[in-house]
Amino acid sequence: MKRWLVVELLIAKEIGEAVSNFLIEMGATGIEELDGDLKRERLRAYFPRDERKKRILGVLRRYLKSLKRLFPGHPPAQIGTASLPEQDWGENWKRFFKPVQVTPRFLVRPPWSRVRLKRGQIPIDITPGMAFGTGTHATTILCIQALEERLKRKGQSVLDVGTGSAILSIIAAKLGAKEVWGIDIDGAAVENARVNVERNGVSDIVKIRKGSIGSLQKKFDVIVANIDLKSLRRMRRSLAGRLKNLGVLILSGILGGEKERIRLHYLETGLLRWVKTAQEGEWVCLTFQRK
């Protein structure tokens, strides 16, 4: 019988929205806000596949630790977990997912949504699963905005590193890219990404592969990497090395307090020039160009 992982957190109210967004990006299929106290709120998140508990808790603890550095005066977060049989959850989780207008052009929605599109609006259907990228997190929105800016010329090639749900790969295809590769080391993410690519009718453009950037020889016009800070630090030469001359590199998953350190870290390769920094709340997106 399939079981669900329930993660309950007691956290400072000031970081509640950021943590909720992060939980959704981790693959939570629903979040409840419960009663807390004057300074703290209680969140309960539901994840499919409770056998992935160790990975989920590890990523969550690292994120909470990064927030603690930004907000040192806040009380430490408390985390509890439980396992829930599927029949106790059923299809009710669908009520947590609503369409999200991520830019004036793109509306991200769950497949069961019935929403009237505005003139010129492009729907992106994303099936929530154990993969990052449901469109609600600031880092995803920043990357979408950066792709809109950099893919104005049709026929470019794009690499999406840590593709997750494939939302950025799908949007790159919708923006006119001629070839998009989405790669991820997580098998569950790859499976979810392929479903979403097929659902959005871009299988002829977007190719999803399991693996790391180190296994690639091909070079691309645009590379986008919305991944964790540790991976961004480690992969700088691999990312820069897979860019064509004058190619564009888009990085996110960076908290505001780390933006200058990461910017300089990439400039030190001698291969890139800095183009732009964009910020949404506490999150940052950096854009570079290959010399």
Strand content: 25-35%
Largest sheet: 7 strands, mixed
Query: What is the CATH class of the largest domain?
Result: Alpha Beta
For the terminal residues, how far apart are their CA atoms? Answer: 54 Å
* Poorly predicted segments: none
List descriptors.
single chain; Alpha-Beta Plaits; alpha/beta; seven-stranded mixed sheet; four-stranded antiparallel sheet; Rossmann fold; about 290 residues; globular
Report on the structure:
- It is a single chain.
- With 291 residues, the chain is α/β, with parallel strands linked by helices.
- It has 2 domains: 3-86, Alpha-Beta Plaits; 133-290, 3-Layer(aba) Sandwich (Rossmann fold), CATH 3.40.50.
- Helices cover 29% and strands 33% of the residues.
- The protein has 8 helices and 14 strands.
- Strands 10-9-8-11-12-14-13 form a 7-stranded mixed sheet, sandwiched between helices.
- α3 (138-150) runs parallel beside α4 (167-174).
- The N and C termini lie far apart (54 Å).
Task: Itemize the secondary structure elements and their pairings.
Layout lengths: L2 E10 L3 H10 L4 E5 L5 E9 L4 H18 L7 E8 L14 E2 L4 E4 L12 E4 L12 H13 L6 E5 L5 H8 L4 E6 L2 H13 L6 E5 L9 E7 L2 H6 L1 H6 L1 E13 L3 H9 L4 E9 L2 E8 L1
Parallel strand pairs: 6-7, 8-9, 8-11, 9-10, 11-12
Antiparallel strand pairs: 1-3, 1-4, 2-3, 5-6, 12-14, 13-14
Summarize the structure.
With 291 residues, the chain is of the alpha/beta class. It is 29% helix and 33% strand.
